[in-house]
Amino acid sequence: MLSLLRRHTGALQLLFVVGVVGAALLLSLSLRPEQNGAPPLRAAAGLPVSVVVPATITYRPELSLSGTVAARTVTNIVPEVQGRIIEVSDAFRPGGYLNAGEVLFRIDPSDYELAVERTLAEIESARSELTLLEAEADAEIAVWNGQFPNREIPELIARIPQIAAAKARIRSGEAARRAAELELERTVVRAPFPARVLTTELDLGQVVTAQAAVGTLFSIDSLEVAVPISSSELALLGDPVGRPATIALPGGRTMAGVVTRTAAALDERTRLGTLFIEPANAGGLTAGEFVDVSIAADTAGDALGVPATALTSRDRLWVVEAGRLAGREVTVLGGDRDSAFVKPFDFADGVVAVPPANGRAGMPVTPVEGRGIASAPGRSTPRGAGVDAP
């Protein structure tokens, strides 16, 4: 049996080789393209991309900004006279409300009352001296006219210089009296306008000096909203002075306002300008609080609405042109979370709603219809624009 296997080993090896070669030929034929006029396999299709046709809208800028309530000016309370404090108003404390003319504090008036009395005494002395001089002058004039009826009496004999000096002392005394009375009035310090107190540490018994501040306050009517704004946002408004604004306060309250002026210079750190808005009711505001502000501008003309996701940078997006990607540079007018509003441009076959991560100019793509951009009348957009249906 073993000898029989040795004699047929070569034939078996030959048969195995022939089988392998035949199998290879059959596999090769099965992988060749079909003949008999059948088309070859097509190349892979372009990358599918979602494409939308931009909606034409009437663009109406409506900026939603953030601002801070601040007083135009802060007034230092400075006594004009010195002395010991004998009374302090309960309202003259941080956060207190003050009415115009309300007493803030009183300084001991004793020294100033004595000064008024002293000036009154000096005035009485000067008036008595004037009365005496006038009587002496009348007597001298009578004697002179009796002795020298045809000669003019000399001024010294008629007491003319002395009388003039006495009258001058009276006028000086009156001025000193008014000054003393003014200082006496200044011992009572009053609120110059309706105000709120920012700072003060004044208390009974404290000695104050003239020209040293003892507290600060601001006029309630001087409260306004300072709103930072970029140059591009300001350009959307044109001339903002006089434009109405809506101030949104914490708690859902709103208040009307109007833009009164703009800052004369940009902030050195942020390079932003500032709008100042006067509220309709400044009494409802608190200095330092943050508020949201909406300002509407005039209709600026037609624009195109595209998906916010279409922008690959601040002003770039992709469009499909003849089955390939093409870049476009656009001017963004505004936008919100879902949409961006741009100036009209050539969008070819449509805008790519979601740009491919590896997109490049000329890249073959297969457009897939995407969801269009809806426009809503009177739309309000954060730091963007309002749109109206065309």
Describe the structure.
This protein has 390 residues and is an alpha+beta fold. The protein folds into three domains: 44-72 and 222-390, Elongation Factor Tu (Ef-tu), domain 3 (Beta Barrel); 79-106 and 190-212, OB fold (Dihydrolipoamide Acetyltransferase, E2P) (Beta Barrel); 110-185. Helix content is 26%, strand content 33%. The chain has four helices and 23 strands. The protein has helices at residues 2-31, 110-147, 160-185, 231-237, and strands spanning 47-52, 55-71, 75-77, 83-88, 97-98, 103-107, 188-190, 195-200, 207-208, 215-219, 223-229, 244-248, 254-262, 273-279, 290-296, 301-307, 316-321, 324-329, 332-335, 339-342, 351-352, 365-369, 384-388. The protein has a six-stranded antiparallel beta barrel with strand order 2-11-14-13-12-15. A four-stranded antiparallel beta sheet has the order 3-10-8-5, with no helix packed on it. The chain has a four-stranded antiparallel beta sheet with strand order 7-6-4-9, with no helix packed on it. Strand 12 and strand 13 (254-262) form a beta hairpin. The longest helix is centred in the N-terminal third of the chain and has 38 residues, at 110-147. Mean pLDDT is 83; it is low at 33-44 and 372-390.
